[in-house]
């Protein structure tokens, strides 16, 4: 494949930076750091542009916090200025990285997402006899910097631009030359890109009859148990060759019983919410109602939040559960 050339001047182009600013601020304009940047955006963008051209970017300004989703997860967020930089980079190379993905990779990609992945898994359950389900131990924390940068160099050219990508990758470590920060736009693209050779490997195995991946959650389908076991053995060896570790909770099960995956209980002819998803739904409803009752948000923000919470339940058959959950919440008075 012919490498894409990216010049540092194209990255620092005013049009590219303004587009990146619009993308970075979209849906976040109420945040104080975003409002602060937008109030003085011309000077801030000029400074960012100068830092890009002079190679003087400060790339290690991270903010760390922990969420439960539902298990504890460490999120590492960059400053808003660096969010603009990351969007500027992906304006130039994001489409290229997206094209490298197989059709059945669904995380952090346009017009895909978890709901499309769930529907695809259900389709595969109807057509196969057995499935294998695995995920990778602390995937983002264990991505090897050297391997990732080598693959990026085979995809792109432009020494100053590649040096910047190398600096961004090296600016965060969980241990020497390992790890990407969860919560960064470039990390999402790089983590997907790093998995691409593994995806190609499993799709080409003769035992495989279908494969779906949502970042490090992987499931594939086989005609019988023997093929499932053989493919799992080969897949573990291939993943370990990338200096990654497959979690010990590996499943080989008949498709007729369905599978719990990405917060849903997927069966060949229906999709249900998992217990985890139900707890999350109730928790979101209660938190947003408390925000409204405390006067921290208006009625419009509450309605928008409710719409987003309902979207979490798609595409599951969940009408009865949602009605019961809403019935337990006292009616809100305007």
Describe this protein's structure.
- By secondary structure, the chain is of the alpha+beta class.
- 53% of the residues lie in helices and 15% in strands.
- It has 14 helices and 11 strands.
- It has helices at 8-11, 14-25, 32-39, 41-54, 80-99, 113-127, 139-142, 145-155, 159-170, 185-204, 225-240, 275-293, 299-312, 319-327, and strands spanning 4-5, 62-68, 72-78, 130-135, 156-157, 211-214, 217-222, 251-254, 259-261, 264-267, 270-273.
- The strands form 4 sheets. The protein has a 4-stranded antiparallel β-sheet with strand order 6-7-4-8, with helices on both faces. Strands 9-10-11 form a 3-stranded antiparallel β-sheet. The chain has a two-stranded parallel sheet with strand order 1-5.
- Helix 2 (14-25) packs across helix 5 (80-99), helix 5 (80-99) runs parallel beside helix 10 and helix 12 runs antiparallel to helix 13 (299-312).
- The radius of gyration is 22 Å and the shape is flat.
